[in-house]
């Protein structure tokens, strides 16, 4: 089962805040579509500021309330109303006993319309307060595109102590790491080594864009698969024990909108194939030699009876000698045993 979906489905971790990050090289909209279609038992309010609802909701779902704000552009309407006030009123009118999911697409457009980082953050923080006051299943799901000036504020514990952060990455980034840095994704590489190399490289967005689109603009960013970097803060494991931060990779089938095993990705097949070839190519040094390197049972028994030449075997450790200063006088030293001050009347 998908580890990401287990965090979303289980009420135990009490995760109220989900942040989806897109970039120029890879969009997280497939993940957003899955979140909208997922868990039909919860009432959902989708606020569209950037993408039309028809591109996010494929089938009409009775539990999804759609609120379109694509035509709410400041300065183009005399009767323009602040969408932040409208969103707050809609959520406040929902009975507090009902678990809900509030989905905003996207924070970038909302910030552009408001024109103020502080005002936009205050609105999102008030929205987060309304969500946390409800049942454990209620969630606030935000979608944004990096780089974004609001991102550090949204990631802080002051905004929400718990967090599920999903960052979409193109598969070519992982093949590049495996080829140039000899660092394939876990479990082929230890977690500490992989994340130490992956995080600083993935944060350089222009380098990833060059891998996807090419140095001169050639190439294509379209993919049938993507890899999602998931960071969970304030979650808990199967035993209920609290965990500070957990980071893992989740592969995603864009066409079928389903998670899949990382080793089953077609775009990363060369990495796993290279591992199998390396294991098969490793020769056994004891094979095809002109002499026998193995011992018979009688030889092993005779070898075990040979006493080991340990000088201090069975003896207590020697006591260290007391400290002393040893001085070997040089030929030019004036060594006189007489007292040099014997002529003084002291």
Automatic annotation (TrEMBL):
Q: Which UniProt keywords apply?
A: Cytoplasm, Nucleus, tRNA processing
Mind telling me which InterPro entries this protein's record contains?
A: Elp5, P-loop_NTPase
Q: Which GO terms describe its biological process?
A: tRNA wobble uridine modification
Q: What are the GO MF terms of this UniProt record?
A: tRNA binding
User: In terms of one coarse class, where is the protein primarily found?
Assistant: cytoplasm
Q: Where in the cell is it found?
A: Cytoplasm; Nucleus
Q: Does the keyword Signal apply?
A: no
List the biased-composition ranges (Acidic residues): 330-346
Q: Does the keyword Nucleus apply?
A: yes
Q: In which pathway does it act?
A: tRNA modification; 5-methoxycarbonylmethyl-2-thiouridine-tRNA biosynthesis
The record's GO CC annotations read: cytosol; elongator holoenzyme complex; nucleus
Using the UniProt annotation, give all residue ranges assigned to the region (Disordered).
298-346
Entry-linked Pfam families = Elong_Iki1
Protein family: Belongs to the ELP5 family.
Put simply, this protein is called Elongator complex protein 5
Give the organism, scientific name: Lentinula guzmanii
């Amino acid at each position: 089962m998908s580890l990401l979906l287990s965090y979303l489905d289980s009420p135990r971790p009490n995760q109220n805040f989900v942040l989806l990050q897109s970039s120029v090289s890879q969009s997280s909209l497939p993940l957003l579509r899955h979140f909208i279609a997922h868990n039909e038992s919860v009432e959902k309010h989708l606020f569209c500021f950037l993408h039309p609802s028809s591109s996010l909701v494929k089938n009409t779902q009775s539990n999804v309330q759609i609120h379109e704000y694509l035509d709410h552009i400041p300065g183009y309407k005399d009767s323009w109303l602040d969408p932040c006030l409208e969103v707050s009123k809609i959520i406040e009118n929902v009975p507090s006993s009902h678990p809900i999911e509030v989905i905003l697409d996207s924070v970038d457009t909302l910030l552009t319309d408001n024109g103020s980082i502080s005002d936009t953050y205050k609105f999102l923080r008030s929205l987060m307060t309304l969500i946390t006051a409800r049942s454990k299943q209620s969630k606030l799901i935000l979608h944004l595109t990096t780089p974004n000036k609001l991102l550090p504020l949204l990631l802080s514990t002051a905004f929400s102590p718990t967090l599920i952060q999903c960052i979409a990455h193109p598969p070519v980034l992982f093949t590049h790491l495996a080829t140039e840095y000899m660092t394939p994704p876990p479990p082929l590489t230890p977690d500490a080594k992989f994340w130490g190399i992956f995080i600083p490289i993935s944060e350089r967005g222009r380098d990833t864009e060059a891998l996807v689109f090419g140095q001169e603009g050639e190439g294509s960013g379209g993919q049938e698969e993507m890899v999602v970097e998931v960071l969970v803060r304030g979650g808990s494991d199967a035993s209920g024990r609290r965990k500070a931060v957990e980071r893992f990779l989740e592969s995603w089938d864009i066409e079928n909108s389903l998670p899949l095993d990382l080793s089953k990705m077609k775009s990363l097949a060369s990495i796993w194939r290279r591992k199998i070839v390396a294991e098969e190519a490793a020769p056994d040094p004891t094979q095809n030699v002109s002499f026998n390197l193995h011992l018979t049972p009688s030889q092993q028994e005779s070898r075990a009876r040979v006493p080991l030449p340990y000088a201090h075997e069975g003896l207590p450790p020697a006591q260290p000698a007391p400290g002393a200063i040893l001085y070997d006088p040089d030929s030019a030293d004036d060594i006189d045993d007489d007292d040099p001050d014997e002529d003084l009347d002291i």
